[in-house]
């Protein structure tokens, strides 16, 4: 057919003189291959958001081009290729700024502490970035951990309430970093880390380890923050912890954000 | 305007000769007043589903009539008025069968075990029913509880892993019953029940109570089932328990369903 | 019992010298009474988050005090009382800064455009605020609307794809404002607004109105932004629109944020 | 260590004499390889539930064994291997009955109707099965489609409201079937099917196709039911359709279930 017949409404001008910060597509489910420190690469499934800015002159953006860029980079979606994808979006959409967010379950093999039984742990990760003149990237990872309440342990003659909690850490950095290293850093900052497979001797171990190592939500975010403050590769971080309190029907929460170039917020 | 101008497409006939089991509206958020054992009534907000069957002759149902029935009964949505609402839906939609599902957060005042500090606990409840010749109703309630692992306690020299878990109980019954009674029944079937407000002396109490009363997911559903089997007003029940394991990143689950008129399934 | 027996672990000092930006409780479901422009007040159910900062000296905060403050203000949770609640949290938790977020479904009576049939529309609202020396507040509201695609209309010989979309508007302001006014502002910025109850003559009206008034996601956020830029009471706003594309399995998205004291971001 | 030291609490007897219908693990995120009609296999990520029955004599089941079975079958999780996995669960857990549910996003390449532009569509699939003496399996798939309202088209001088809706089809069958065939069957039962990538000429095509082919929620479930009734390989089906009404803030819903061995329900 003759495309000339089909008016390009998006390219028409807009009289309101208002630029749009972000316009694009959201919630695209897509298979991706990400870097894996142990195995080289790992195949998983991502939920992807892609945006550009829209200058005040234009009525609309061309949404289908986002998908075309995505298809072109299929199979190479990782921290290293991220800047290329961002620049491709910016170029194809003729924008000054482009945003990309890729969220996916990431799997690591983990060995039970006593039995050595191996299993897979799943961690929710997000790689996100923006390009205008330069590319600025960040990584976010969610890591489930065990916390045991110091107050409950202190005041009770037997036991102490404990629960699963979720650490969400976002970082910006200078040099390439491995998601695996962030996950291990976080898992060392709780009463105990969590496993997909524990045999009886492992269950004894993690129970006693948590009891020996009580931590409040406050302790978890401070422990993570302390390690990141001393890590020169990390330029900014935000750590959230939400604790699924076993004695309450609401959650406990703690949050620390630090821009190391700007000092404490 | 002259409604005669607007064709009633829904009332046209359908050639496929296939009856539809359920057709209607879903996810209507609506303020409702429900019965409260202590205070008479309680105002809350419900998410409502309404369906009817559609005979094979008709092309479609008249969706707006569901909303009109709902508006008519606004402020009297409870177990006692439920049969009236069901019959009104059946009548207005000219159906042989009508279904109504009303899910809402329900609040109960609860007193901390030692300090006596009072707070509100929220429980997710659903009242659902169907009418054809007779009305058949059911109630579902979700109750968060604490469980402490008997295995972890037995094998560990100190402490025991524990966590929040959610009991979901659905029942059918002969005579009117109070949601409050179901909730209290469930809360007596865990290592400890859960509170919105606990002072330090209460936290000591619940920690020690849970440690003294270890229960698996299996124990929770059996304890609930045992009480319902002996309750003559309950004709059918289904109890689910999902345990937010503090040492794993997956949940433990147990389920018992029993039709007391038909015997064990 | 003698409280002196129970150590106050939270009040102990922390050696890490790291202040915590936010610590508190999340996901407390609670019945609230909010202001209603038409009826004076309205009872609904909120999901509440409460946080304070924690100075670097202290090991932990006292979570139960949040609930005690909440219980004290039960039944007066609205824009006018918000500053009092914030100051009470700050005082009871002995903090320098306190945060409060209250999210709830809000209901407005709405009249169908032709039949005049009345029904209830539900809108998700959030009131949030922070106090340090001064109180700073914001309101967020989510409003579903209809959009009809200008490109689809232009290039197609018949019809045009249309869909439900969700506008999320956050604002900061000088003087008190009504949620109702924000909702009406947003509903005037789409191809057509949405109703809970439409009779046949209304369905004809909204179908033709949407077809006569095609808008991209970009048009919706620009139309909202244009009105807020000219509203002197609004000091800052962020408008998001997510369009549930009827021809795609992903959503279209547009976003404008404007700090009127700082100029365009 | 000497395992003899660690009591096997789960194997202890239970006095309540109540068998448990299902006990196991829920929400295990796991990478899986499934069959792909076009490419042989496809790698994706599943959310997995595994249960067994528990005889009345035993206090608990051994949860870790579920994960061990899962790890053994890693990489061969598909309709063909499903019976083997079910029998392995039954054997390892020493149960009379075992249940397995595997839900995953499944991707198919799809070609735009005019431009021929290729993109990936995501569909949510679930394979589930139970074994006691025999194995009984089922497949569920969720397929987004476009519907255009026949009433709105009939009564309006211009346009017609349309929207995205979700068909959820569950089937039981005699012989092996391809998920792809179910998806294509469903996509042929709507006003138009949905794409991840449409160029302008495609958008014209799908807009006009939907307008030429108006369907109610009732029409969608009847069209799917009609095809399945005539398919001898299908022994049972349940089809749900939920329509994200573009003119309402609630959804329209229709449902047909048919047990072809038992006749209409």
Tags for this model:
homotetramer; 265 residues; alpha+beta; Urate Oxidase; 23% helix
Explain what you see.
- 4 copies of one chain form a homotetramer.
- With 265 residues, chain A is α+β, with helices and mostly antiparallel strands.
- The first copy, chain A, has a single domain (12-262), classed as Urate Oxidase, CATH 3.10.270.
- In chain A, 23% of the residues lie in helices and 41% in strands.
- Chain A has 6 helices and 10 strands.
- Chain A has helices at 64-72, 82-92, 150-155, 179-187, 200-212, 217-229; strands at residues 20-36, 40-54, 98-111, 118-131, 135-148, 162-173, 192-193, 234-243, 251-259, 263-264.
- In chain A, strands 1, 2, 3, 4, 5, 6, 7, 8, 9 and 10 form a 10-stranded antiparallel sheet that branches.
- In chain A, strand 3 and strand 4 (118-131) form a beta hairpin.
- In chain A, helix 1 packs antiparallel against helix 2 (82-92).
- The longest helix of chain A has 13 residues, at 200-212.
- The radius of gyration of chain A is 23 Å and the shape is elongated.
- The interface between A and D is medium-sized, with 32 and 32 residues.
- Strand 9 of chain A pairs antiparallel with strand 1 (20-36) of chain C, so a sheet runs across the interface.
